[in-house]
Amino acid sequence: MGYIRVSTEEQGDSGAGLAAQEASIRQDITRRGWQLLEIYTDVASGKSRAQRAGLDAAIDAVTTRRAGTLMVAKLDRLSRSLVDFATITGEAHKHGWNLVALDLGVDLSTPAGEFLANVMASAAQWERRIIGQRTSDALQAKKAAGVKLGRPSHVSPETLTFILEQRAKKISYAHIADFLNAQGVATAQGGTRWHASSVRSVERSRCSGS
Q1: Which phi and psi (to 5°) does residue 106 adopt?
Q2: Is 163 exposed, middle or buried (0-12, 13-18, 19+ CB in 10 A)?
Q3: Residue 104 in contact with residue 77, Cβ under 8 Å?
Q4: H helix or E strand, kind and range, residue 117
Q5: Run of H or E residues at 69
Q6: Within a 10 A sphere around the Cβ of 12, how many other Cβ atoms?
Q7: What is the pTM of this model?
Q8: pLDDT in tens, 116-175
């Protein structure tokens, strides 16, 4: 499977950036003697995985073993976030599929490529800890100044009841998130994708009475 992306509708309409990425992928697949099953496309920002249906579909294709490799021409087409890259790499390891980024030589099927991916994953872990520490410091400063913390939650009563009922039945946060995503239910902040952590936050905020 191939994945290509440009950031703006103007770039998508011109087709130049997408065509160049596709050409690189096709050329390398031919060199390797592989078969290209499909190329998925997004016209969206690469700062995060949010609202990228093409990437979600591509990852689903390799996760469900319809293909064995996900290839991108450039790593920043996959994501500009080291944290997202580390998450995707983790999914590849967990489900047994290969990830190839042609520009940096990332190829999880080779020792050198896997080593590079691990180095980048370590950098992502460092980045997460630094961001987390800065966020914690900022929140503590606001709390000390008497600022009320937290964002307003807009989960519907039906969704809240469903989450609490499922948790009472010992259903995992991840399974609840998958169900809500499948039903197209909006998140507490109006987003489009639930995660185990967001389900847990809704449950805890309700149980704490906030």
Answers
A1: -75, 125
A2: buried
A3: no
A4: helix 111-144
A5: strand 69-72
A6: 17
A7: 0.56
A8: 877 876 765 666 667 667 777 777 776 777 765 555 557 788 888 888 988 888 899 988
